[in-house]
């Protein structure tokens, strides 16, 4: 063993992917835990190092350069009779903890969550994904609860460890917005920022229990798969409703228009227009229009009846009781003479037109 052994973070280990790494001697990996007295420990910025012996976390070192001696590792001194000089080795693992802010940890639902849309009353498969940022806040707690028998802790290890908890909390939140706040899945994108802020409060105590501080949490998208049949049905219905609203009428009115058009094309089949409308089951639109017409006719008849003087016959009665022109019953009368109209009035001399019965000037019967 060399007189001075250098223990530091391996530069080939990606600090964007690895949160904690156990030191491995590049020259002799099997002797990585055999540290000699006066071993040089180098801790970079945004890092911390912890000595472990027999699964117990001992001293913690911040950024700087340290000589591992009895003065620098008092906790280890209580377990070993560490000499003050020479090359006498002692057994201990060195863990390096990466404390940089990692802001692009991805999360997402592996399978859609089945939720009922509050507006369309159809169960839809809802998906969600996003990302969050974290940093290790308490190195000792982080290693004791998450390292275990691993040689390193990566972002994938963190995502796998917290995926179930994250998805459970986020699934409950999405269901709350859709089911309780009555926000349809096609409008929930407008609430992503509010949901992200609320999610930070949900996950913070969970992460802090493992020595991790959440920096941020974002919902990237909440959506439904386009190839799902129920989603296609809703989108078709939404498109149809938007088209009718643009034209200014409802679905029932459009069906009534279709019935009227069909009746106009098939007036000789299936009876009257009313029969066709009832037969097609469109009583709401067509029946309402016909009922309105009937009401207007009734008002017209009633208004005429109200304007007729008392005792005078109504219009239908007057038409029925009006005397009809009958040929003369006298056997000696000449039919042509009785029906012919003179050319001039015998009283005032006014010229008359054929068919007149009274003189338009003096009123004499012709």
Question: What distinguishing features does this structure have?
Answer:
366 residues; rod-shaped; alpha+beta; Tetrahydropterin Synthase, Chain A
Q: Can you characterise this structure?
A:
Helices cover 36% and strands 22% of the residues. The protein has 366 residues and is of the alpha+beta class. Among the domains are: 6-98, no CATH class; 102-225, 2-Layer Sandwich (Tetrahydropterin Synthase, Chain A), CATH 3.30.479.30. A 5-stranded antiparallel sheet has the order 6-5-9-2-13. A hairpin with a 6-residue loop joins strand 11 and strand 12. The longest helix has 26 residues, at 155-180. It is rod-shaped, with a radius of gyration of 49 Å.
Strand content: 15-25%
Uncertain segments: 81-88, 269-287, 314-338
Mean pLDDT: 75
Based on the structure given, which CATH architecture of the domain at 102-225 is correct?
A: 2-Layer Sandwich
Strand ordering within the main sheet: 6-5-9-2-13
| Major pleated sheet | 5 strands, antiparallel
Could you say which structural class the secondary elements and strand pairing correspond to?
Answer: alpha+beta
What is the C-alpha radius of gyration, as a whole number of Å? 49 Å
CATH superfamily of the domain at 102-225: Band 7 domain
Q: In a nutshell, what does this entry contain?
A:
The chain has 10 helices and 14 strands. The chain has 366 residues and is α+β, with helices and mostly antiparallel strands.
Blueprint of the fold:
Elements: E1 6-7, E2 18-22, E3 34-36, E4 39-43, E5 47-53, E6 56-61, E7 64-68, H1 74-77, E8 89-91, E9 93-98, E10 102-108, E11 113-116, E12 123-136, H2 139-146, E13 152-154, H3 155-180, H4 192-208, E14 212-223, H5 229-247, H6 251-265, H7 273-279, H8 283-307, H9 315-321, H10 335-339
Helix pairs in contact: 3-4, 6-8
């Amino acid at each position: 063993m060399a007189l001075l052994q250098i223990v530091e973070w391996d530069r080939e280990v990606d600090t964007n992917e690895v949160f904690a790494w156990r030191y491995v001697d590049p020259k002799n990996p099997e002797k990585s835990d055999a540290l000699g007295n006066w071993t040089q420990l180098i801790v970079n910025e945004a890092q911390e190092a912890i000595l472990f012996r027999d699964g117990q976390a001992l001293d913690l070192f911040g950024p700087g350069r340290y000589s591992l001696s009895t003065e620098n590792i008092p906790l280890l001194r209580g377990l070993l009779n560490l000499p003050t000089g020479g090359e006498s080795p002692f057994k201990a693992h060195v863990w390096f903890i990466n404390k940089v802010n990692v802001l692009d940890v991805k999360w997402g639902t592996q399978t859609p969550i089945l939720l009922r849309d509050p507006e369309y009353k159809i169960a839809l498969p809802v998906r969600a994904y996003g990302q969050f940022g974290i940093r290790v806040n308490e190195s000792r707690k982080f290693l004791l609860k998450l390292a275990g028998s691993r040689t390193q802790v990566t972002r994938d290890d963190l995502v796998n460890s917290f995926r179930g908890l994250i998805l459970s909390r986020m699934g409950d939140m999405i269901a709350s917005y859709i089911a309780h706040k009555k926000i349809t899945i096609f409008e929930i994108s407008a609430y992503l920022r509010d949901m992200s802020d609320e999610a930070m409060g949900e996950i913070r105590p969970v992460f802090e229990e493992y020595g991790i501080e959440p920096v941020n949490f974002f919902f990237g998208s909440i959506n439904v798969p386009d190839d799902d049949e129920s989603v296609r049905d809703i989108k078709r219905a939404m498109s149809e409703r938007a088209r009718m609203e643009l034209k200014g009428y409802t679905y029932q009115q459009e069906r009534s228009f279709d019935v009227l058009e069909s009746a106009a094309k098939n007036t000789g089949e299936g009876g009257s227009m009313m029969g066709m409308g009832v037969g097609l089951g469109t009583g709401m639109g067509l029946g309402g229009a016909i009922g309105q017409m009937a009401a207007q006719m009734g008002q017209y008849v009633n208004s005429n009846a109200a304007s007729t003087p008392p005792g005078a016959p109504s219009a239908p009665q007057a038409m029925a009781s009006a005397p009809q022109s009958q040929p003369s019953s006298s056997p000696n009368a000449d039919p042509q003479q009785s029906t012919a109209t003179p050319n001039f009035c015998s009283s005032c001399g006014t010229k008359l037109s054929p068919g007149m019965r009274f003189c338009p000037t003096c009123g004499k019967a012709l």
